[in-house]
Design goal:
This is RelE/StbE family addiction module toxin. The chain is built from 2 helices and no strands. It is mostly helical and 51 residues long. The chain has a domain of 27 residues. α1 runs antiparallel to α2.
Length: 51
């Protein structure tokens, strides 16, 4: 299985989004990070050729 390569801009955007969420609710930011990571892993398994 191929690895996911994140663009620097995508990584930066994700960090900004999670920081914004964490300002109000650190637990919500952790849940969102986990949800996004799990979604990427699922998509990678579901659509291996598209990566």
């Amino acid at each position: 299985m191929l690895s996911i390569i994140w663009l620097a801009s995508a990584h930066s955007d994700l960090h900004k989004i999670l920081t914004y969420i964490a300002y109000e609710s650190p637990p919500a930011a952790r849940r969102m990070k986990k949800l996004l990571e799990d979604s990427v892993v699922h998509a990678r398994r579901e659509f291996p050729i598209s990566t």
